Each structure stands twice: as structure tokens, then as C-alpha cells.
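Dissemination and training. As part of the outreach component of the grant, students in the summer workshop were shown how a complex can be specified as a set of sequence lines and then modelled as a single object. The example used during the hands-on session is reproduced here so that future cohorts can follow it. Participants entered these lines:
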Amino acid sequence: MIYGITHTTTYEYSDPVSLSHHLLRLQPRELAGQQCLEHDIAIQPRPGVTRSHADYFGNQMIFVTVEGAHRQLVATSRSRVRVEAIAPPEPEDTPAWEAVRELCRRETPGEDLEARDFVYDSPLIKEQPEFGAYAAASFTPGVPLLTAVLDLTNRIHKDFKFDPKATTIATPLEQVMKSRRGVCQDFAQLEIAFLRAMGIPARYVSGYLETDPPPGKTRLAGADASHAWVSFFCPGAGWIDVDPTNNLLPSNRHITVAWGRDYSDVSPIRGVILGSGEHTLKVAVDVIPLPEGKFGLL
Amino acid sequence: MFAGYSALPEIYDEMAAMPGALRPHWSKFVALLERLGREEVTLRWENARRIIREHGVTYNVYGDPQGMDRPWELDLVPLLIPPAEWAQIEAGLAQRARLFNLILADLYGPQRLVRQGDLPAALVYANPNFLRPCHGVPVPEDIYLHLHAADVARSSDGQKWVISDRTQAPSGAGYALENRIVLSRILPDEFRDCQVQRLASFFRIQRDTLLGLAPNNRHNPSVVLLTPGPYNETYFEHDYLARYLGFTLVEGGDLTVRDRKVFIKTLEGLRPVDVILRRVDDSFCDPLELRGDSFLGVAGLLEAVRAGNVTIANALGSGVIESPAFLAFLPGLCRRLLGEELKLPSVATWWCGQPKEREYVIEHLDEIVVKHAFGSRAHEPYFGAKMGEKERAKLVAAIRARPHEFVGQEKVALSTAPVWQNNKLEPRPLVLRTYVTATRDSFAVMPGGLTRVSTSVLDPIVSMQSGGGSKDTWVLSDGPVNAVSLLSASGQPIRSGRSSAELPSRVADNLFWLGRYTERLEDTLRLLRCVVVRMTDESGADGAPELNALAQVLVRLDLLPERFKERFSLKELEHEILLLIYKQDRVGSARQILGRVRGLASIVRDRFSADTWSILNKLNIDARSRPRRIPLADALGLLNAVIVDLSAFSGMEMENMTRGLGWRFLDFGRRLERATHLVKLFRASLCHEAKIGSVLEPVLEILDSLMTYRRRYFAGVQLPSVLELLLLDEGNPRSLAFQFKALKEHAANLPGEADTAGETDEERRIAALFALLRDADIGALTQMAGAGTNESLNSLLADFVVELGMLSNQLTHRYFTHTVASVS
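and obtained this result:
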């Protein structure tokens, strides 16, 4: 599938801002099964400084500085991405979860070196006894890793209710665990916490998901949102994605932008402004399937 | 003196080899001390304490209301280290710094040590001080560690061990220097005769290294010392080192990143910064890429480093290697990276992330200390021997659940050294903090260090936070010591002129308010003295009309409660006045204003000479008992003394401060405050009082113009003459006209954009005030309206109050507005 993606972020400031610095992570990654055909970010007002780097996790990160009084900042990211479904391994072909845990506990890493960043506590995900207790029901002795993860994902989907009003970016994980409500970001971080509690490396993936309009209705512009899911390390197979919000293994409707230990490593836009007033934030995302062979930016 | 010294059994004593036997390198010093005699030593010691108070050497203790500005504790007896022993320590420390630097270069680069199994992965990836955004960011000359500190202890067998390292932003080098300055002053002959190695060259090397690492402006680099601010425990040292090294002291809010370069915000605009010596922990240095909740850093700083436009010492991310867990792996790392054995061993450390080591720690809980593996200072160490069964079980469970987060460490029975206490020498456990600075291609060790001693012989915890003391450290030399001067190779004084040339807006703001508050303090003291004098006077006993009138003035100035409008006893008034002098939380009390003065003074002390500072530092209105019990005569004595001290300060300000912008803002504040005070005092006294005769003389007295008045006007005190002298006379430094004239001159010399007529807004406002005053008709102003009020005077003064308030706001808005950074 080829998707055209537009992601517009608008900051409005109550008082003029004299200087702002932002970090943007909005460029879809290059992966087996994902190709970023075109990508462009437009920022208004025009930044004095724009620098692109790969961050520690290999995500493209752009540093921008806007100088001179401004009351609004708009960042529009446009991408065209080809996504192909890659079949996941058969669950019973994956190693027993304990073997993976032991591999990732050895002092000197081997093929799991890259996974070692994702087994320990991170800024937003700190181990709690209740995480291990919840996960244990899926991680019975000798169960293949993918089987255990599918069961865990299914339980999260069943036990937790999608509720955009229940949480904010700042809601701690323990709170989500207690209220059993949240959004994709909460569920992703929760599943990561469960997996890490069992000793399985797991990372946070941010990106987009193609959604269907409600039956009988046409797609509304800007109605989509950023999405978040989980990727866990499975020796032999590499990293396998899993989406607890929708209880599925992503195939060709998920577009990966960035990954890290948790949300704090991959927030799409993060900024520091010099100014004394309040600000409001609006985000509009469109993910539109395009016919093959059509070129040019949207 | 030495005869009475009894070291502890089975503990290594630095001075006594065995009871009654000195170690050879102490013999000369002890002989010199014996020659001085007990009395003289005590005198010298008191002298040292006085110098420390005068220099304002302080150490702040967190969470202690009295903890701010606690005087520094320095012992009279230095720790002596013989040349041969020092040579070993020195070689060990230089090797250690070189090793640590190489480890950092690997962790923030190729990470071969993890790949090859020299370092367990968890030490890096589970370590909260490993800052991923700093990975791959180049640092000039591959120097990560510009200053390394190591705490060295000696066990009972005489072996020296490093018990911990500081690689983040090591503290204490400034205190070590101050200790040396004080001790060499009170024991000058002893210092010379013992052939003590000097510290100055170490600081010169440090300074030259930092200057040499400036990526731009290599001919005249600008170095700043970044402090978290006056509430930090070692703020004294930040200010002290900044002045000593000739660097500008800044807080995060003073800096800004533009075009991937760092600038300091000064009153005259942005000035480039090339090198930052930081005392802010690395994760707090950039709210954009590191901790978003930090208010101590500079947004975009890491990007400026990445662009190669600024050098930060120590490099961002260097805190990772402070973790105690690394100690367990240093011998292997040393062999791998340097091909050498570790010369100075670390205290035995077992990292619980390894199964065998973990079991050893759990089995030997009684003998060892358990610490957090990543050295978070939020975690206190656990002493297994002191824990109950339940606590121990809990600790063991925690270790088993998260083994990689714990280490066990051998307890070192610290050696002791003599301290001068209770007029004799007593043994105290000690730890020596040593310092290593990077040079272009190697590392140089400070010949000395900060020796810290615990408060009691039984207490093994040595920390300034828990109330310990400190010693100077004398590294002895075999031959004569060359006195290294504080002049650099080029012959320039170490104190560069730069820091006085650049005035950060925040500093200007603080100076302005310091000017206002010192003036407000003087005004308040004079007002209170005027009352107290009349109460202690014999005539006061029968309720002089002046006293009653003054009480009404104080009510109108909101200093006394409304009930004093009615009848009140002398005792009630006395009680209130004492509170207005001594009570810290009483609004408008002298003690409260002094608190503001002290707070502001401590923030800007790098702007004052040592003499000026010692005057400010001496100001004191502390009650020895409950204010109610203080005799009025004592209160009067205190008011007189503080007024004299304050005039010494204003004298220093007039005679010793360079007429730069700093002085202008200080004096602007003083003039504005004096004008405001006069206007308010006039409104509260001259506009309401039917029997105006009873306040005229007190008003002249409060405004320090009584002598002038008497000399000039031979007649009794009359309102028109008072107004002439205090409003219009430009030659009277206490008059309103004099303040306006001074304000006008200051405004004309402040940086700012003038309009087409060549005037700034402030200049226009002051000119208008001046015109209003000059046009005033004394005759009309003295016309009393009905009911004992003077409406025309009152309305003129009311205009002044409003205008002066607006002038203050305008100045704040133009020069000091600190735009606030917020993270989204």
C-alpha cells in the first residue's frame, strides 16, 4: 500500500513569543517493508535554523529555531510512504519466553545488543510489582514468546477501555493500571511495562494508522491521529510489532515514524519557547491510501 | 599538646605512629605548634574563624531553615602528606582521570567495552545518568572530564583507597583554596617552614585548559561558570571560583541559544560565550533535549555543542561514570584501555548484577555497605549491621528483584587525624577529596585537596551536609617550594576584566533592588530610632506630644495597627516597636528588610570588593532573646550601630565602586527609594497633623537634615523652611530635588533607545517629575485647608508617589523583564 500522510501541528500563543526552539520527529523511517518515498516539513514562520540529525535510536530529528515575535507556529509534515505486509512468524516457532529473558540478562550481549536499551526502566516506564503480576498469567512456563505476547495483548484489549477523557500525556502508568482506561499511548506503554517486567525487551513505536470512516460516512479531513504501539525483541525473528489498542499484529496499515524506550524519546514535537503567556496546541492528521504509481506531493 | 593526644586503638592515625610517637613528617609542624603554645593556638584559631566570617565563606544545608549561609567549618591543624606518599597518590589519580576519560569516550562513542564484555551492558543501558541524546556528540580534543574528583581514604593497614568519584560537576576545589588562604594567613611561619606545595598553579592550569578549548574567539575567549543559583549548597564556591578564575558567574536564565551559538544576555545586548564551566548537573542543562522540567539550563544548549560552537566542562553526559557500580570493573578496564594495572585501588565493590557477587553481598550484609549501583544521591546507603531482621529481609528481596541496581562495598575503617577542639588535639575520621584537571594532552593533580573530618570520633559519615568539618591539606616537599604567582604566563592578572564589563540583566535587576532595600533599611532604622530615642528620654515618660504624633505617622505608614489611633500605653508602643525592629516575619520590620538585603547581596556578591562585602556581611539584627524582653537601651544601641554600618556601605558604594552600569543600577534603586520614602513620610506626617509643630523636628531628624536646618535657619522649625530644605534644595543629599537630579543623570547614562528628541522614556518621566517639583509654590503648599489637612501638598505628593512607582515599573520592564521559558 502507498499512503499520503499530512500531519499539521499548530501552536497558538496568547502573548508574542520572541524565540522558540523545537525538536521534530515526523519523518517516517526506512524499514524492511516500509519505504519513505517523499517527505517534507514546512514551518511557519520560517525558522532561522533548521538542522537534521539521526537521534540515538536512528529516528530523524530536526532542530529548528524561530526568532522574532510570533503568536503562532505551524509545522506541516507531508510524506508518501510504501508499506508492505511482512508475515510474522508462527507463534509456536518462536523461542520459549524464558530463553529470551535469559539471553537478554547475560552480561555480554550478542545479537541482542540493540535490545539492551529496551529492557530496563525508562523515564516514563518504571517497574512496579503489579506489572509483573498482571503479565504472569500470560507467561506460563515454556510458552513460546509470541504466543504469550498475543495472549497478553488480547487481555489488555479486553481489560482496558479506550477512553480519551481518562488520561493525558502526564498520567502515570500506575494510574492507568488502576483506572483501566486510556488511549493508545497508555496501552502501548503499559504493554511495554508488562513485557519488561518479564525480562523481554520492548520499545515504544510512534506512527500512523489508516482508519476507516464510520460505515456509510465519508472520511473527514484531519480526523486521524498519531498512533502508538509496541515492538518486542524476538531472537531469530528480530523485532515484532504488536498493537494493543486494536489487538492485532500490524501488517500494512501501520506507518512507523520513530521508536524509543517510551513516549519521552519520540514525542513528535517538543519545544521550549521564550515568552510569558499560555499556549494551545492543535493537531490534524490525514492518512490517505493512494493508488500505486501516482507521484508528486499532495 | 601532642603529649595529651590519644589516637584510637586499631585505627591508622595520620600523625601518631603509636602512642607518643610522631610520624616523621609531622615532627616539624608539631614542634612549631608546641612553640606557639596552647593560648596562642587558641587565639590563632579564633582569628581563623573571624576571617571565615569576614570572607563570608558559607555552605548551605538543604532542608534546614537556619541552613542558608552556614559558616564554613575549618580546622586549625592541616593534614600533612609526605612527598613520597604523595607521588604515589598523584600518579594514581592522574591514571584514574585518564582512564575515566577513555571510558566516557567509549560509552558516548563506539561502546566497544560493552560489546567486548569488559563492561556489563546494564551498567550503561540501565544507568539513568547515561544520557542518550549526548551519544555521538563530539567534544573538543576528546576531553570529557575537565575536572575529576576522587575521595581517598586510608584503612587501618595504612593502604589508600578511592572510595568514590565525582565526574559530574565536582565541588570543593574552591573551599580547598579558601582553606589554604585562611590557614596560610594564620600560620604563616609554619606554612613556610614546612615547605608546602602551592595550589595556585593547579588553578592556572585549569583556567588555561578551559581558555584553550574555546571553539571560537580564540584570541579572547569568554568563559562562564554556570551555577544553579544561590540556593545551591556550594553557591559560595561558585561565586568564589568565578572571581578567582576570572569567569563570569551566570545562571541558566542569563544565557540563550541563537543560531546554534550560546550568548549571555547583558544590558548592552547579546555577548558570545565560548566555554561553560558547569556546576549544574548535566541532565538539567537543556530543557529541550534533556530534562524538560529543568529551569536551570539553557534550551538548545546540546545543539550548540553538537554544532561545535561551545565547549562544556565537564562534557554533558559525564555524570554516568560516578556510579559506584563502575568501581567493580576498573581494574579490568584499566588493563584493557591503558594496558596498565590500576595504581590506586578502589574500595572493594561487588555489583549485584553478577550472580556470584550478589550472593556474596547477601551473605555478608553485616560487614558491608549496600548502595544504589547508579549512585542516585536520593538513596541513602544501607548498613546491614545496623538493620533489624525485617528491614534486612526487605533489602534482600529488593536486591533479588532488581539486582543490577545494587552494589555492596567494603566498609573502610577511616584513618584519623588530629583536630583542634576544646583547646586540645583530638582524633577524627577523615576523607581526602582530591582534584585532577585535564591539560591539553594529559592530566594534572592538585597538590593538596579538601580534607573532610566527621563531627565525632564514633561517626564514620564524613559529609559537609551532615555537619562535618574541613581541613587544609599540606603536601610537603623535599626541597624549597617555588611560590607560583597568580599571574599567568603572559603576565596578566588571573582576574580578567571581562566579568565587570558584562552585566547580565538579572544582576542589574538584583543590584537595583539591593539599592532600594539598603535604602529602605536605613529609612526604617532612622524612623524607628526617632521613636526609640523619645521613649528612652526622660521626657518620654510623661507622654510627649511628639511620641503620640509619631505613632500616628507609623499608623499611616501601615507600620502600626489601627488601634494606635486611640489611646495606648507606653508599654504597648514599646512592645510594637521592638517587634518592628527584631521580628523577622513582621511586614516592614527592620529585620525583615535586612533579610532581603542579605539575600540580594549574596546573589551579587561577585560585584563587590572584599571590604564592601565584609560590611554587608556584618549587618546583623538578631535578637538574643524574645524581642519583648530586650531593653530599649539595647535596641537603641543596635539601631545606632546598624545605621553606622549602612553608611559605611554607602560610603564604599560611593568611593570604591567603578562607575559602571552596576553602580548606576544600585544607585538608581537607592535614589528612587529615598525619594519614595520622603514623599510617603511627608504625606503621613505633614499633610494630616493639626499640631504640625510636633512632627516637624522628628521629620527633619528622620531625614538626617536637622543639623543643616539649625545651621541655616536660626528661627524655630517652620513648615515653609522645612519644605524648602527637603523638597527643593538640590544641594541637600536628602532632598527630593537631589534624588531627581541623580535619577536624571543615571537615566541619561543607561543603555537604551532614545526617541527623536534624544530622550528615553525614563528620562522624559523624570524630567516631568522635576518640572512638577520646580513649579511648586511653597506658599501655596503651606496653606492649611480645614480640619487640619493640607490638600495642595497632599495632592502634589500623591502625584509623586504614583509617578515614582511607574518609573520603577518602567525600568523593570525595559531592563529586567526575564522572559520565561516553558516547555510544550
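Chain A is about 20% helix and 40% strand. Students were then asked to discuss how this feature might be tested experimentally.
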